User: Fold this.
Amino acid sequence: MLPFPFTAIVAQEEMKRALLIAAVDPSVGGVLIFGDRGTGKSTAVRALAALLPKIRAVAGCPYSCSPDSPAEACPHCSQQRGQGRGKSHQIPVPVVDLPLGATEDRVVGALDLERALTRGEKAFEPGLLARANRGFLYIDEANLLEDHLVDLLLDVAASGVNTVEREGLSLRHPARFVLVGSGNPEEGELRPQLLDRFGLACEVTTPTDIATRIEVVRRRDAYERDSQGFCAAQTKAEKVLQKTILSARERLVGMSVPDAVLESAARLCLALGTDGLRGELTLMRTARALAALEGADVVSIGHLRQVAPSALRHRLRRNPLDESGSTARVARAVEEVLGAG
Ligand SMILES: [Zn+2]
Assistant:
């Protein structure tokens, strides 16, 4: 069955925007989506990947290396290069699910035991990080994953390289992906140190207004009855959004951030007492990616205002004197520092 089209997802504007921003500029860091089950988090990630144009990859490479950037080649491709140009093929942008309970071996890759036993060779069996290269890695219920695995994933996502030093193996391979984690706030919390390493955090809720609920149900039903027809009707909208993402990526290169915007970002983070400078950096990059998506030439305070909740709400320290939720605290600071929109 074809994936549900991104442009047919009803409401959930903040989540859609966060995912689009990550697709335009992966350097904003991953996206953490908090919300009830059945709010279409995994559907949205799959839909976004399906919306992006196919990528060219070296045939037979377990890491889907790009034939155009030999500098980032994996061990497999560097070995092949001496033997003439390998073939390449078009593949969809990968989406890899990281199941709960996945072992470190499965995630990182491990010694290929069969080859070691039958042929005495020390070969590497690539893991999920290899498959996620150049795509998306989706962790359902990231808050239930062991801390050390989350930590490892965030490290690899930030560096784009998986370094394996174990069982007598020693290798590095490219692992550039956008990490998308979902979490159910009622079932265990991510440690604050891990939380603030995700670029963006957004909240999704089951819609409460009748018209939206009806539309969600109507579209879901139409899709399940005739996914081909449903997707075909969405083709034009999907093409338009795909073009928007691609031109935003180009636009990003020359996009300037005025000093006044940087200053406002700094004042906002100070007012909220976020730790370190990661908040400001993410806020700036996120606002810039949004400006690029909207086709603007410069980043404005308006862009900052729109992205502040997703970029900052997971970076607030607990304030025992202030029981209001983090989203409300960010909204208040935005109003105080940036003025009412
Ligand atoms: Zn390769």
